[in-house]
Automatic annotation (TrEMBL):
Lineage of producing organism: Archaea, Methanobacteriati, Methanobacteriota, Stenosarchaea group, Methanomicrobia
Originating species: Methanosarcina horonobensis HB-1 = JCM 15518
Organism domain of life: Archaea
SUPFAM superfamilies: Acetyl-CoA synthetase-like (SSF56801)
GO MF terms, alphabetically ordered: nucleotide binding; phenylacetate-CoA ligase activity
UniProt-listed InterPro entries: Adenylate-forming_Reductase (IPR051414), AMP-bd_C_sf (IPR045851), AMP-dep_Lig_C (IPR028154), AMP-dep_synth/lig_dom (IPR000873), ANL_N_sf (IPR042099), PA_CoA_ligase (IPR011880)
One Pfam short name: AMP-binding
Protein name (Swiss-Prot/TrEMBL): Phenylacetate-coenzyme A ligase
Pathway in which this enzyme or protein is active: Aromatic compound metabolism
């Protein structure tokens, strides 16, 4: 078993708790002394850094939300002086101002080590060639991941996004053994490689997927089609970026690097859930200097798992993401997550993985949910009865999971736009009331 930083990856649980407490106290003091927003929030909560005596005392601290980052745009939440910030990253800002985060030189080193740990954990090493097919620029999945590969000493191919045929050509010519991309883009790569009859020419042994939730069925399909092992990479710019959590070779839950992040999984009342129960992931930075986030409500839904893992690491473990609290759609009073729909569709062989949800409101002011899916080429017999049977089957499977009736439209393969980034799953055309 190989480790990048065995001291932290396999730390005795009691020793790890002592380290976490020390770092939590340092983080609380850092933001209290340097960030006016946090000083005010601490005062409103009636707490000071001196009140943090145990790890459980994290619950005394106030939550931070994405809106707080936007309200303090661009540098209001930075805990380091501007001259000590060596890099910034930002979210896309699709709903208002982007969220901007800053990194000191030490932050970049820490982040690079987290990626190197993660890649070592899935069996990659200096001899590998890793293609980064994520967007470079302000998005953390580009440069953040890039620096981690270099830290490990492997060869990085900074392919970025787009030009799928060229991406495949590079994979073949450069002997690429691992690729980092969104699962949506991996399907596009697989589709294109099959069309060009290139699958057998690829040397891929691992794929690292991030940027959007994906199901176990997606894993099985892509592993089979691309002849590799697929691993989940969890990250968010508000903490660092990719490398906050990662699957090991057991492929059974995400290891969160507990020396850098304190994990809470909370129910709707803000109470810690029991092991195996679903809740919202809340993270606290334990080592970040430039931008230190306290009790950040990620909006990501997950479950706490037993910390013991056959890989030997002693970190906190969570399930793969179960969707996002803010991705939830309310359709006729029923909570619907796109990840539920993805899971159903991925189990039906007659349709492909690409789908879109279209929400309308009919003349009776009732919500209508239409799900567009692509028909697999081998599923079309030319008989309209067979098409109707597939449509009815998809509708039946969706209703059994969602508990609402949906309209299903079968589209020709390739009809739904492919993207190298996050797939646009939802088109909400309902008028605001």
């Amino acid at each position: 078993m190989k480790y990048w930083q065995p001291k932290y990856e396999t730390m005795n649980p009691e020793e790890l708790k002592r380290l976490q407490l020390k770092r939590l106290q340092n983080s609380a003091k850092l933001v209290y002394d340097n960030v006016p927003f946090y000083r005010q929030k601490f005062k409103e909560a009636g707490v000071t850094p001196d009140d943090i005596k145990t790890l459980e005392d994290v619950r005394k601290l106030p939550f931070t939300r994405k809106t707080d980052l936007r309200d303090n745009y661009p540098f209001g939440l930075f805990a380091a002086k501007k001259e000590d910030i060596v890099r910034i990253h930002a979210s896309s800002g699709t709903s208002g101002k982007p969220t901007v985060v800053g990194y000191t030189a030490k932050d970049i080193e820490t982040w690079s080590d987290l990626i190197a740990r993660s890649l070592t954990m899935i069996g990659l090493s200096k001899g590998d060639v890793i293609q980064n097919s994520m967007n470079y620029g302000l998005f953390t999945g580009g440069l953040g991941f890039h620096y981690g590969v270099e830290r490990m000493g492997a060869m990085i191919v900074p392919a970025a996004t787009g030009n799928t045929a060229r991406q495949l050509e590079m994979m073949i010519d450069f002997g690429v053994t691992a690729v980092h991309c969104t699962p949506s883009y991996a399907f596009y790569l697989a589709e294109t490689a099959e069309e060009l009859d290139l699958i057998d020419k690829l040397s891929l042994k691992a794929a690292i997927f991030g940027g959007e939730p994906w199901s176990e069925n997606t894993r099985k399909q892509l592993e089979k089609r691309l002849n590799l092992k697929a691993y989940d990479c969890y990250g968010l710019s508000e903490m660092f970026g990719p490398g906050v959590g990662f699957e090991c070779q057991e492929q059974n839950g995400l290891h969160i690097w507990s020396d850098n992040f304190l994990v809470e999984v909370l129910d709707e009342n803000g109470e810690q859930v029991s092991e195996g129960e679903k809740g919202e992931l809340v993270l606290t930075s334990l080592s970040k200097e430039g931008f230190c986030n306290i009790r950040y409500r990620t909006g990501d839904m997950t479950k706490l798992l037993e910390s013991e893992c056959d890989c030997g690491r002693t970190t906190t473990r969570i399930s793969r993401l179960l969707g996002r609290a803010d991705d939830m759609l309310i359709v006729r009073g029923i909570n619907v997550f796109p990840s539920q729909i993805q899971d159903v569709i991925s189990r039906i062989p007659q349709v492909g993985e690409h789908f879109q949800l279209i929400l309308d409101r009919n003349k009776h002011m009732l919500d209508e949910l239409t799900i567009e899916v692509e028909l697999e080429e081998n599923a079309f017999t030319g008989d309209l009865k067979d098409l109707k049977a597939v449509q009815n089957h998809v509708q039946h499977e969706l209703k059994s999971v969602l508990n609402i009736r949906t309209n299903v439209e079968l589209l020709e393969k390739g009809s739904i736009e492919r993207t190298a980034g996050k797939a646009k799953r939802v088109i909400d055309r309902r008028p605001e009331i």
